Fold this sequence. Notes:
The structure is a single chain. The chain is an alpha+beta fold. It folds into two domains: 9-94, Response regulator (Rossmann fold); 101-216, Orthogonal Bundle (Arc Repressor Mutant, subunit A), CATH 1.10.10. The chain is built from nine helices and ten strands. The chain has a five-stranded antiparallel sheet, covered by helices on one side. A three-stranded parallel sheet has the order 1-2-3, sandwiched between helices. Strands 8-9 form a two-stranded antiparallel sheet. A hairpin with a 5-residue loop joins strand 6 and strand 7. The model is unreliable at 97-102, 162-169 and 213-226 (pLDDT under 50).
Amino acid sequence: MLTKVVHTMLQLRRHLYRSRYHLVIIDAVCLRYEAIHLCRQVRTSDAVPILMIVPPNDCDLIVQALGAGADDCMSPPLSVPEFIARANSLIRRASYAHKPPRERQTVFTFAGFRLSLMKRLLLDSDGQVIGLTAAEFDLLLAFCRNPGRLMGREELLTLTHAGLAGPMSRSIDVHVSRLRQKIEADPQQPRLIKTVRLGGYVLTADVSIDDGDARNSPAVPRHPQT
C-alpha cells in the first residue's frame, strides 16, 4: 500500500489530486488546532476517510475534529493493533461499493434525496452531490434502512462505528448535527431526522428502494413507534 508523509496542505492536495489514497492521518498532537483547518480543507474536496491523532483527554479538540469532517480520532499512547483495526475499519467502510452486484445497485430515495450504495454518494433533488464523511454516509444509510424506527445511540454506534473516538460516547450527536446541516431545510427545526428525548433518533421520511429490479423495489415499511 502506497504511503506518503507530507507537511503542508499544498503537498497533501497534490498527492490527493494525483493518486487515490485509502486513508488520511492527521497529527493534531503537533499541529493542534491547525489540524482542524487542515481537516476542513481536505473534506471540501475529497471523501477520503480521515483519522486524526489528538492529545489525550482533549474532548474539545475531538468535538472540533469530528465537526470538521474527521471520521475517527485516537490519542497516544497508540496501541498498534488498535490503530491498525481502526484504520482498516475506515478503509473497509469507504470501499463499501465492493459488494455483490444486486446490493451495489441499491439506491435509497427519500424526501427528494437519492443515496447510492455503489457510488457512496448522496444526491439532492437537482442531482447535485452532497458531500458526506464516511461516518455520515453510514449513519444516513442506517436511517434509510430503518425509516420510522427509533434508533438509540448505542445501536447507531454499532451500525456505523462512528463512536470510535475514545471518550466521546455521544459522538453520534455530532455526526447527526452535521448530517442535519446537509439535508434539513432548517437544521434548528429538523423535520427529517427527529430527536427522541432519552431515546435516540428517528428518520421520519418515507424511503423507497431501487435495486435495479422493478419487482424488488417496494417502499421500506415504516416501523410503528412504541
